[in-house]
Design brief:
The structure holds 2 protein chains of 2 kinds. By secondary structure, chain A is α+β, with helices and mostly antiparallel strands. Helix content of chain A is 38%, strand content 15%. The termini of chain A are far apart. Chain B is an alpha/beta fold. In chain B, strands 1, 2, 6, 7, 8, 9 and 16 form a 7-stranded mixed beta sheet that branches. In chain B, strands 15-10-19-20 form a 4-stranded antiparallel beta sheet, with helices on one face. Classes of the chains: A alpha+beta, B alpha/beta.
């Protein structure tokens, strides 16, 4: 039977290194299957997060051959198998153990975002065309791969000032909800730091749900912030009114 | 007392953060209770996220003739009349309001031309009834509930496993568990506990269920003295992926058939004509699963032992719009473009109709202070669940469980934690670390899956079920001797040792109930008793712990009131 070698990071906050495991290949095998095979036969304490193994829950994020991916959607036969397949935890988040990282910061950011609130006296009817636009953002499975790859977080560690692509998608899903009545522009500007994004589109590239994060979520939200806070005409009006 | 353990105190503790758990949390919070939610995974990853097809609710947006009576009748007929009629009635009456509520909390469903929530056809439902978001309805539902409950303010304990319910005399006092990350122990003191932990699919080899589905809640309740009911009824969803081996069991939504997909065997025959000529592909899941299984067994299966499911006669854009995740799933995992050719599908273990026996109105179990909702509870679905009735079940009875638990907590005084129960629970969970030899828990798990798959599958018979009981006993002895390597820190091998105990308890209950029911009804098919039996049609099997052993008895199905009987005989 054909075999592949997995080179998996083993370790925790105190340190660690990659270990090699030979894994017999099965047709259609995905990287997560290979990791499970290692758990079952070689390293029962190998820590990995996963749930559905069907690309629906976004739990099994890791860096496979250096690229942030869902392990359940990465076929072994799509990778070069003449050398070891490297599997490392997401770099942007603090390591817990092996492939598991501490992603709790994301849940804290989410708490800051005001939930959907219908406009007063709203009629609960919506056009499919209006819904279509927003449904794209609601496909997000919270795998946090976009957060992992975003250089504002990954290289500059600006977690205090910046919400990250996942939460711009989240805000877009609320702001563009046809019946929502809350403005989150100030939150975007001041707490989520949307201005720090310089639209390199790395997030869009790694999104397993193929959400056009930069074009459809971040850029329109940046425009909203600009309209709200930097429109020269509005600034003039405010100045006159304020005076 | 117990000062060495991290302790949290709430009015209501909810175990499980899927649809039922979160809906229960929202209701308990609305009642003013202090609420804690414990879940094995991260918030938002629960099994509900995998639900695809939709939420069944008689909103009559598409088919104006639909109403709760028809939904009630479909549910009872689908469940082969073993359902708790009161639950079926409440479910049919309340689900439209529960869906509207979701929309008011921000959920965005697909729309009809006049802007209402769109509804689609599904197996066993007389009318187009499933409110949906493409084929990712569960994701929309869980995100909506998650955001609602987070902003209402509850304590959430993620990646925490409960291993024991604590009692104060007869009543519930809380729960004991460990943090998966560090392996530290934690005590939750609570006036009432809601179990919303889902099902047991991981005890079978071919399943659509995630690792979390190890029957924890059912086992916890059983160990605490609660009754389990209808445990013989395990649903095999007719359409799971069969090829390649790595993806075997992954769900192919019933929405494929709801949107017009056809089933054929290798000879190109639409074989459902022989099994249910009236409803064809949209027959109930038990019927379609047996049909595919029979086609394969009689030599008319596909290359990899399944049936062909084809939606490629619909325009490619339509398929991609209505079934986006199916399109990607087959393209990426099986190299099949479903807009151009058929999928290969076969039955996969999907859902547990049985579970904790509860009161219809309050969702309370037989143990005071213990409540259950969703897949972990029994009663609504009887012998077979209709597609789409699960998500509505989570909303209707999640809410009722939250309400019941909050009201109970208002009346109840603070419970006392019994330190000897805590010490025993901590000894039990640490035992595998103390063994210097023993086999891997993974091996025991895979042998259990193989035994359940071959002996307690779609078709059952006396001999196989007796063998299964013997196998489960042997596996239990092996599980008691497994060894754990490594530390307590995020150690999946260790975590599996407790999951195994739960699975062994629940599979024993399934097997004993299946042995007792000498007839075929709904999802329970006996080769040696192939027909419906009227006497069994009036009884539910109940399992309870007595003197350290599993005891089984039957209870009469509650008689329907006249007005509901009338609904069942009406033909529309």
């Amino acid at each position: 039977m054909a075999e592949a070698t997995l080179r998996v990071f083993r370790g925790d906050q105190k340190g660690g290194e990659a270990a090699d495991y030979p894994v017999p290949l099965v047709p259609g095998m995905v990287v997560l299957d290979a990791v499970h095979s290692v758990q079952a036969h070689q390293a029962p304490d190998l820590a990995v997060r996963w749930n559905c193994k069907a690309g629906k829950c976004g739990s099994c994020s890791a860096e496979v051959n250096g690229r942030p991916r869902l392990m359940c959607k990465t076929r072994m036969d799509s990778l070069p198998l003449d050398k070891p397949v490297t599997i490392f935890p997401m770099k942007t988040f603090p390591l817990i153990k092996d492939l598991v990282t501490d992603v709790s910061w994301n849940f804290e950011v989410n708490r800051k975002i005001p939930p959907f609130q219908p406009r007063p006296g709203v009629v609960w009817k919506m056009d499919q065309r209006d819904v279509d636009r927003v449904q794209e953002f609601r496909k997000c499975i919270e795998c946090f791969l976009c957060q992992d790859v975003c250089h504002v977080l990954r290289d500059h560690g600006k977690r205090e000032q910046f919400g990250g692509p996942r939460f711009f998608v989240r805000v877009a899903g609320l702001e563009m909800h046809p019946l929502d009545g809350v403005s989150r522009a100030r939150l975007l500007k001041e707490q989520l730091g949307i201005g720090l994004c310089n639209i390199t589109k790395c997030c869009t590239e790694v999104c397993p749900e193929e959400i056009h994060i930069t074009d459809n979520a971040i850029i329109p939200l940046k425009e909203r912030v600009v309209d709200e806070f930097y429109d020269p005409l509005l600034m003039l009006v405010r100045k006159i009114r304020g005076a | 007392m117990n000062s060495s353990y991290e302790t949290h105190e709430h009015d209501v503790l909810i175990i499980g953060a899927g649809g039922a758990g979160l809906r229960a949390a929202i209701e308990a919070l609305a009642q003013g209770a202090r609420v804690g939610v414990v879940c094995k995974s991260l918030l938002g990853k629960a099994h509900t996220v995998m639900a695809e097809g939709g939420i069944a609710a008689a909103m009559s947006n598409v088919d104006k003739a639909d109403d709760w009576r028809t939904h009630f009748r479909d549910t009872m007929r689908g469940g082969k009349m073993l359902n708790n009629w009161r639950m079926a009635q409440l479910h049919a009456q309340e689900s439209p309001e529960r869906v509207r509520e979701l929309e008011q909390w921000g959920a965005l469903f697909d729309r009809t031309a006049d802007g209402e929530i769109l509804q689609r056809a599904f197996g066993g439902h007389t009318f187009k009834r499933l409110c949906h978001v493409g084929d990712r309805t569960g994701l929309e539902m869980i995100r909506t509930l998650q955001d609602r409950s987070v902003h209402m303010g509850f304590d959430v304990f993620m990646e925490c496993t409960i291993t024991r319910l604590l009692k104060d005399g007869d009543r519930i006092a809380g729960a004991f568990g460990y943090w998966r990350e560090q392996g530290r122990f934690v005590i939750f003191k609570a006036k009432s506990v809601v179990i919303a932990t889902g099902g047991i699919g991981k005890a079978w080899k071919i399943t659509s269920n995630s690792w979390e589905y190890t029957g924890d809640g059912m086992a916890l309740a059983y160990e605490a003295g609660a009754e389990l009911m209808d445990m013989e009824f395990v649903q095999f969803h007719p359409t799971g992926m069969v090829w390649p081996p790595g993806v075997q069991g992954i769900l192919v939504t019933e929405a494929v058939r709801g949107e017009g997909g056809t089933l054929r065997n290798k000879n190109g025959e639409r074989f459902m004509e022989r099994y249910d000529p009236k409803k064809m592909e949209l027959s109930t899941r038990d019927v379609v699963s047996r049909a595919i299984y029979t086609e394969v067994r009689e030599g008319r299966g596909t290359e990899h032992g399944g049936a062909y499911l084809d939606i490629s006669h619909k325009p490619a854009d339509y398929v991609k719009k209505k079934l986006p995740s199916m399109y990607h799933q087959f393209l990426e995992l099986a190299d099949v473009d479903i807009t151009k050719g058929p999928m290969e599908v076969g039955p996969t273990c999907h859902y547990m109709m049985g579970g904790i026996r509860v009161d219809a109105e309050t969702a309370q179990a037989s143990v005071p202070g213990l409540f259950a909702a969703g897949e972990a509870a029994a009663g609504l679905h009887g012998a077979n669940r209709l597609g789409g009735n699960s998500l509505s079940d989570l909303l209707v009875f999640g809410r009722r469980a939250g309400l019941g638990a909050a009201e109970y907590a208002k009346r109840a005084g603070a419970p006392a934690i019994n330190s000897s129960q805590v010490e025993e629970a901590s000894r039990q969970i640490l035992a595998p670390f103390e063994r210097s030899s023993g086999e891997s828990p993974y091996k025991v798990h895979s042998d259990l899956q193989a035994a359940m798959q071959s002996l307690v599958g779609i078709y059952r018979q006396e001999e196989d079920l007796q063998r299964a009981l013997v196998e489960i006993e042997k596996l239990r002895a092996r599980a008691a001797r497994v060894r754990v390597e490594g530390s307590r820190m995020f150690n999946p091998g260790w975590h599996l040792t407790r999951d195994l105990e739960c699975m062994l308890t629940v599979t024993e209950a399934v097997t004993r109930s299946a042995l007792a029911r000498r007839e075929s009804r709904g999802a329970h098919s006996r080769l040696d008793y192939p027909n419906l039996n009227d006497a069994w049609g009036k009884k539910n099997n109940v399992i309870v712990e007595k003197g350290g052993a599993m005891s089984l008895f039957d209870v009469p199905v509650r008689e329907l009131p006249e007005d509901l009987k009338q609904i069942l005989v009406e033909e529309k």
